Automatic annotation (TrEMBL):
<dbReference type="InterPro" id="IPR011009">
    <property type="entry name" value="Kinase-like_dom_sf"/>
</dbReference>
<keyword id="KW-0808">Transferase</keyword>
<dbReference type="InterPro" id="IPR051678">
    <property type="entry name" value="AGP_Transferase"/>
</dbReference>
<dbReference type="GO" id="GO:0016740">
    <property type="term" value="F:transferase activity"/>
</dbReference>
<dbReference type="Pfam" id="PF01636">
    <property type="entry name" value="APH"/>
</dbReference>
<dbReference type="InterPro" id="IPR002575">
    <property type="entry name" value="Aminoglycoside_PTrfase"/>
</dbReference>
<protein>
    <submittedName>
        <fullName>Phosphotransferase family enzyme</fullName>
    </submittedName>
</protein>
<feature type="domain" description="Aminoglycoside phosphotransferase">
    <location>
        <begin position="29"/>
        <end position="203"/>
    </location>
</feature>
Length: 245
C-alpha cells in the first residue's frame, strides 16, 4: 500500500502525496477553483486534474525531476534553464487571467510591516535590513501586467533532460509583474540567471530582478521562521539578503 506523505502543511492549506497522486486541501475552496482555472489557461505543461471536491483537489504527479532546490546547486543543464526561460516568456505573453494579484500598494505595505518585524526580532542586523529595504525600492514601480505563476519556486519546475515537462502549484497565478516570477525562480541561484534569460529572450532589467530578491527574502522570512523552516540555511533567504549589493 502506498504511504501518505505530507509535502507541506500549515493553517491555510496542506498538500499530501499518496503514490502518484497529490491531494491539495485548502480552507478556502475558491483558491482551488482558481488554481484549476489557471492550469487550464496556462500555455505550459501542468499536472492532470484527477478530481475536485469543495476543499480538495487531486492532481497527478508530473514526470521528470525538479529544476533544483533552494540552498543547493541546480543539477539541471544550462539548456534546461534556457528551455524554462522560453516557457516562462510564453506564459508572460499569454492572454491575461481574469483576476489580479497583489498590487504595488499591498506589496509595499507588506514589505514595510515585515521589515519592522525583522528590526524588532533581532534575527538580522538592522543595517542589513535597511540596505535590502533600500534595494527593494527598485522593484516597487509600476509594471505592465502579465500572466504570472506567482510562486515560481525552482522546486515547481520539472525537467527531463533539457526539456520542461511540468510546472506545479498554480494557486498564486494572477496578473502581476513578470520580473517577480524571474526573481523567485532564480532566488539563491544567481549563477543561473544568465541561462534563464538566454531562453527568456527579452530585454530584462536585472537590477529589478535583484530588487525582487530582496523583497521576496524580507517578506518571507517571518513566515518561514513561524512555520518551522530555517531561512538561515546556506543559500537560503538570509544568505540572499547578505549578498545584496
Amino acid at each position: 500500500m502506498d504511504e501518505v506523505s505530507v509535502v507541506v502543511a500549515h493553517s491555510e492549506r496542506a498538500t499530501l502525496r499518496v503514490g502518484d497522486v497529490f491531494l491539495k486541501v485548502d480552507g478556502d475552496p475558491r483558491r482551488l477553483d482558481r488554481e484549476v482555472e489557471a492550469m487550464a489557461l496556462a500555455p505550459l505543461p501542468t499536472p492532470r486534474v484527477l478530481w475536485r471536491r469543495p476543499n480538495v483537489l487531486a492532481v497527478a504527479a508530473v514526470p521528470g525531476m525538479a529544476l533544483g532546490v533552494l540552498g543547493e546547486p541546480s543539477p539541471a543543464s544550462p539548456a534546461a534553464w534556457a528551455a524554462v526561460g522560453a516557457a516562462v516568456r510564453q506564459l508572460h505573453e499569454a492572454p491575461l487571467p481574469p483576476w489580479i494579484g497583489p498590487g504595488l500598494d499591498e506589496i509595499t505595505a507588506e514589505l514595510d510591516a515585515e521589515c519592522e518585524w525583522l528590526m524588532g526580532s533581532g534575527v538580522l542586523p538592522p543595517s542589513l535590513i535597511r540596505r535590502n529595504r533600500e534595494v527593494a525600492g527598485i522593484a516597487l514601480r509600476p509594471w505592465k501586467p502579465a500572466f504570472v505563476h506567482g510562486d515560481m519556486q525552482i522546486t515547481h519546475f520539472f525537467v527531463d533532460g533539457d526539456q520542461l515537462v511540468g510546472v506545479i502549484d498554480w494557486s498564486e497565478a494572477a496578473q502581476g509583474d513578470p520580473l517577480l516570477d524571474l526573481a523567485v525562480l532564480t532566488l539563491g541561484h544567481e549563477e543561473r540567471l544568465d541561462d534563464l534569460l538566454a531562453g527568456y529572450g527579452a530585454d530584462v532589467d536585472v537590477d529589478v530582478i535583484r530588487a525582487w530578491w530582496s523583497v521576496r527574502s524580507l517578506t518571507a522570512s517571518r513566515w518561514l521562521l513561524e512555520h518551522g523552516f530555517d531561512p538561515n540555511e546556506p543559500g537560503c533567504e538570509f544568505d540572499v539578503l547578505r549578498a545584496c549589493r
